Automatic annotation (TrEMBL):
InterPro entries: Peripla_BP_I, SBP_2_dom. Residues 1-22 form the signal peptide. Belongs to the bacterial solute-binding protein 2 family. Residues 56-312 form the Periplasmic binding protein domain. It is found in: Cell envelope. This is Substrate-binding domain-containing protein. Its main location: other. The keyword Ligase does not apply. PANTHER family: D-ALLOSE-BINDING PERIPLASMIC PROTEIN-RELATED (PTHR46847:SF1). Keywords: Signal.
Length: 348
């Protein structure tokens, strides 16, 4: 199974080819006249122009983690950026029952759309489905519902792709070293997102003949990251590379590495925190790369909710409606491109 990431140049070439084909199809009809395909699109200017005011309800989990805090703040900033959006923000919570009541309140208030990052996708599915049945489009962010009828659109980070990106980077750095010792510091093993990240990582390493030698799991906290990394370093006297799934717990991971005085390996992080990017910029850390898991997902959800509520399309696509499912990219950030991405980073 080949899982190598497509290069940016290759992606642009393929995109260009696809648009060229689309252009040909749009221009070729039985009568030789131009198709109306392109006419269904809103232009970027039309999308940016203020329309009828739409009321969007937003509910997300408690901001007890740097990435989650960035999710909430970026959603609010997105709402503020549109003069025709009234954003109603519910208090962040990790209580599924409270979040259900928040969705019910939005429905009773008759909002035009709901953007929801559920604390538990399965637990919020029924409430979201009822909102949809009431004619209110729901935009599902990050943690998926268990029914396709619970959301008009879903926007996700690419957990499997994160693992592929991290593994591909390590393969490129250690190519040909069949005996390389690769360590993995995962998040919470019971979560599907952690399982997806680990699966992508293993698949990418397998593609270049490598595999994970030592693996531990933390809990997405600084304390957990420090504790399991101390155990890992004690068990593995020599390591060539480490992938840590989460930059928030990475603060503890780096603390344990510093305390052990170890620097014979390089490390790749995950999520894209500002402190991780500053470590990369410094050039003095074992952390030399991190893989983005976008904290802009809810902000993108707000933008999509506005388009859907106003009956607009996505200006760069030929399809005459907003896509049902969007999966964001998981790029690798290194010293070569960190200056382009640090503006989007979140503080741990």
């Amino acid at each position: 199974m080949s899982v190598k990431r497509t290069s940016r140049a290759g992606t642009l070439l393929m995109a260009g080819a696809s648009l060229a084909v689309a252009g040909l199809l749009a221009g070729c009809t039985a009568g030789g006249s131009e198709s109306s395909t392109a006419d269904n699109r809103n232009s970027a200017e039309e999308n940016a122009a203020a329309g009828d005011t739409v009321v969007i309800g937003f509910s997300g989990p408690a901001a007890d983690h740097g990435w989650l805090g960035a999710i909430n703040s970026s959603a609010i900033a997105a709402g503020d950026s549109f003069p025709d959006v009234e954003l109603r923000v519910a208090e962040g919570t990790n209580d599924a029952n409270l979040q259900i009541s928040q969705v019910e309140t939005f429905v009773n208030d008759g909002v035009d759309a709901i953007v929801l990052l559920p604390t538990d996708g399965a637990a919020l599915t029924e409430a979201a489905t009822k909102a949809m049945e009431a004619g209110i489009p729901v935009i599902n962010v990050d943690r998926e519902f268990s029914s396709p009828f619970a959301a008009r659109a879903t926007i996700l980070g690419d957990n499997y792709g994160m693992g592929v990106s991290a593994g591909t980077y390590i393969c490129e750095r250690l190519g040909g070293q069949d005996d390389a010792v690769i360590a993995e510091i995962a998040g919470i093993d019971s979560l599907p997102l952690t399982q997806d990240r680990s699966r992508g990582f293993a698949d990418a390493l397998s593609d270049c003949g490598l595999s994970v030698t030592n693996r531990v799991a933390a809990d997405f906290t600084v304390q957990g990251g420090e504790a399991v990394t101390s155990q890992l370093l004690s068990a593995a006297p020599e390591i060539d590379a480490i992938w840590n799934h989460d930059d928030d717990q990475g603060v503890g991971v780096l603390a344990a590495i510093d305390a052990a005085g170890r620097d014979e390996f390089f490390m790749v992080g995950g999520a894209g925190s500002a402190n991780a990017m500053r470590e990369i910029q410094s050039g003095d850390s074992v952390l030399e790369a991190t893989v983005i898991y976008p904290s802009t997902q809810a902000a993108d959800g707000i933008a999509m909710a506005r388009l859907i509520a106003q009956g607009k399309t996505m200006s760069d696509l030929y399809t005459p409606s907003v896509p049902y499912r969007v999966v964001l990219d998981a790029p690798v950030i290194t010293a070569d491109n960190v200056d382009e991405y640090i503006q989007f980073a979140f503080e741990s």
